[in-house]
Every structure is written in structure tokens, then in C-alpha cells.
Amino acid sequence: MNRKAIFLDIDGTLTEPGSNEVPQSAVWAVSQARRAGNFVFLCTGRNYDMLRPLLKYEFDGLIASSGGYIECQGKVLSDRPMTQAQKEAAMEILKENGIFRTVECMGGSYTDEGFKEFLKKHAGEGSNSEMLRFREQIEKTLHILPMKEYKGEPVYKIVIISQTLEQIQRARSAMTDEFQFCIQEENKGGYINGEILSRDYDKGRALEKVCEHLGIPLADSVAFGDSMNDIEMIAAAGLGICMENGSRTLKEKADDICPSVRDGGIREAFLKYGLAAEKAAGF
Q: Which of 126, 177, 213, 283 has a CA between 20 and 30 Å from the CA of residue 186?
């Protein structure tokens, strides 16, 4: 059997959203896949600092910031933050249009405090109260700091929260074609979330770069994801799998759908496609 290169999104795929705990079923699957000679990579929108707690698990490398930073077997393959001009233009236009911003750097993330205040004012509407609890949790566990502490470090990605789609459309029209917008398809309790990054990279092109470095055909790559920022990765891989809890659009693009990580979906899919040997399970 040809060696496979396996790429795993984190939030909503390898872990519950905002969590740093990988279920034992997924830990087993990753271990057995590597033992079988396959390569396993994290491929996430998180910046390097946010995924650091997951590095205690053994992976062959990582793709962070939706492709802005790539490591393979201890070697940095790519490190491409936004340019200073791109960052300044994006931050100003988003602010002018009343869009809440979280900038993600290599060593930390910084968020507009106004977002939590907005959620507090609208708690109880739709899923806002749930989102507030989630936001406070990830700020504690994923090292997200107030924007006032941002000191100008290079930015790989800007996560955005807007109260209306019109605000995002105005910002998009004012920004150059150097940026790509990835907007989640659900409007949760009165706001829309998404992310902005340079058009120079995405998860799909990062997957291709890793496979080229390893000498593995794209046909022998497997990608797992759950949200709209996984579309390029799912499309680029020889086999693209969406989690059951994932985006409706991504499910339509994927080659297969597996159970959620909570229900052992990673382990089940690894066994189904021969990425890990069931006889070695002991699970």
C-alpha cells in the first residue's frame, strides 16, 4: 500500500471547537496511522501559538494560519504573513465598517473588546449567550489577548465578526484583490463570522506543497475538515472527508462524511480507508 499524507483540521474535526483535548479514539488513530508508515499533519486556521498545546501529540508536521505557515518533519517550508501594507489597509477598512477583528500572529492573538460587549448586550438572542461562553473559554485556553496589547507583530490572518452581511460586503468592495474572504455560511444569533487572509496561500496549496516535499502524489493524500475554510484542502486532496457536524456546503464538496469527533469519527474513517490497522487497535 502506498504511504498516505493525512491532513487534519483541529476545531470541529480533531477536537471539539475551542478545545485542546483530542479524544483517545483520535489519538489512537493518529498513532496507528503513523506506525503503518503514513504521515499525519495538522492543517488548521489556528496560528502557531493556538495549536501549541496539541504538539504533545505526535505529528509529522503542521500547517497553521490557513496555510500561512508550514512545517514538515521539523523543517519550515513556508512562512508568509501579510505584508505590513496589507495588514494596515485591512485593519482600517474593517474598523471603518464596524467589523470586530481578531488578528492572529505567530506568538499570540489580539481581539477587539467590543465583540464581547456586543454579545453581552444581545445575550439570549439566538445563540449569542452560547457564543459568549465559547468566546470567553477560547480566550482563556487559546491565549487570545485584548487588542490594546497588540504591538505590531506580523499578522497571518484576521478573524472577523460582523453584525450584518452588508458590512462585510462594503469592506470587501473597499479592499484590493490581494485578500480572500472566507465567510461561514451560518448567521448565528445576529452576527456573521469569517476570516481574511492573503491570496498568496490557503490550506489546499499548503497541502500540495507538503505532498510535493514528501514526494507523495496528491492522489495519496487524505484531508479531514468541517468548515468553509477547509474547502480548498478538501478539493486538493485525493480523498476529502467532512465531519458529520460540518458545514452543509463542505459536505456537498467532500468525497465522504464521517461521524463527528465526539462520536469517534476520525478513528472510524481511518479504519474504513485502511489508514490504520484494526487488528492493532486494542481500543
A: 177
